[in-house]
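Subject: mismatched residue count in predicted assembly?

I count 629 residues in my input, but I want to confirm that the predicted structure covers every chain. Input:
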Amino acid sequence: MDRIIMGDNQFFGVNHMSEERGMANAVRFQDVKSIIEVLDTAYQCGIHAFTFSTHEQVGLICDHFRANPQKYSDLRLYPALPYAQKYAHLVNEKGIVGTIKDMLFSGSSVSQAASMMMHGGAIMLKQDPADVMKLLIDAEMKMFRGLNVQVVFLQNVVTDLLLGLGWKDVFKEYVSYIEHKYNARAGFQTLNMPRLVDFLLNCGIEKPIVCSAINKIGFQMNPDVASYEQTLRTKPVRAFAMSVMAAGAIKPKDAFEYVAGFERVESILFGASGRTHIEQTKELIEKAS
Amino acid sequence: MLKGGVIGFGRMGITHYSILNTHPDVQFVAVCESTEYVVKNLKRYTSLELFNDYKDMLDKAALDFVIVATPTVSHAEIVKAAIQKNIHVFVEKPFSLSAQEGENLVKMLEGKPLVNQVGYFLRFSDVFRHVKKILDDGHLGQVIHYKNEMYGRTVLKPSKSSWRSKKQMGGGCMLDFASHCIDFSDYLFGPVKAATGSMLKNIHSADVEDAVYTNLIHSNDVTGSILVNWSDASYRRPYNRIEIVGTKGKIVADRQEYRLYLHDTEVSGIFTKGWNIHYLPELEKGTRFGLRGAEFTSQLDHFIECIKEKRTKTACTFEDGQRTDCVIEMIKKDFEERCK
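Triage response: the counts match. Full output below for your records.
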């Protein structure tokens, strides 16, 4: 896995510190061109690894990557799916079953939809959730087709919901499907890293790839910092650190030194939208590592 | 170990189940749900006893507590049956479709050692709890007026399929969104005695309102404006914000930060003159299990703790929920009278 990976929250109005700042960013990045500018800057700075949600704008960004294969020949992607907000609204409107149907059939061509409907319809009758999950993954992964995907993360709302439900088979199916169908590694985003790592090891998933907040003030780390530190020191996990600066509450230098102190933190995710900031962050992470 | 059941396994039911399924003192034993697909999955993945009829479940499952997460229209009859069976109840908001119905339920609780809670989770937000303390400690002086807002993009086109778009099922922006603001105002400033200048607006929905604007007068004469719109596409997710103006300063807060402005230096030295800004990363404590925000876990853990400690006065009782139902009726009446 790459050591330094750039995230996409800043492009889509997500700011864990301030909702208003998030909105201001969303305004700046309404046009996909301005997102690509920032990605290009990062690419020029030597950052070739990016994590993306499956926000509809990301589809356009991927089109751009595909249209310029020479320029992005060394690109590596770490997508996270599904895009939670999109489905929260659908579930409100159509219920859980209606949402699944909608997800399967939206964005497909007529013939695809017809074949999926046959396929999906049969599956809905058979009620096999693992097969439904596979169709949903395919629907979400469509936008990344032909690009170099390293890890496919399951977004934290879904991971943590399933973790709470304790449905081991779904986790195992997810890992095996991502590995076989997409020739990539499966990863999990979570707000409950210590519990998830224990659970995944229990499922027989070896050296699980887990993406979570890791910062010394415990922001978005449940139940507490001590449990995270214990897990990082004692469990065979490949950790992917995000919210390293706790949305700005920790100074960059201190933040990166803290995460770099854990051998099992393999990758560090950061968000930035200007050249200076990107360069500084890269330098700080490299220095701390 | 407390034995629990869930009635209604939709978005909220499944969330509550998942959160409490990780609680060391809770064991879920039963779920009541009618959607076939959901039931088949529960059969496959769990050893829960599954029911199609909640009365059956309350009769047979030997529950200590039940989570009621059905459409609002059925809350009252289910809660009533649970109280009759002496089962502790956590019910999703809003409490009931009518103030009278709710009052009867509150009366039924008298003399029964039953823990009762309504799912107004904003009361458990770390930032809003700080706002409450700042108010109660008098940092703002006397409150002059407040503005309590909630916006979201829940309904962006006409919808017929969701129960949330149907009046008789308990749908509408008033019950789904505005109820949160009304309860939050009650939590901060106490009971409401009147609603005035109320406007209910349709944007996309035919059967229910999509926006609610009103002014509340509390028993202590504090006044405030409620502005709610669930058809505002500019918001990524439901968003709550409150601004309170007092004689000594003002505070503006959402679930991620608060900004307190004080006119003068305080003797206490807790806050400085001018702006005091604090963000969630420093205000939030880790939670036992995080799913969709710490507030959701805090409210359920509080419910379980109250059962264990035999405390019937939760942070959001049926009585609290019923007062919000009364205010909803006041607002509707105020609006209807002016429309005549």
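The longest strand of chain B covers residues 192-201. Marking this ticket as 'not a bug'.
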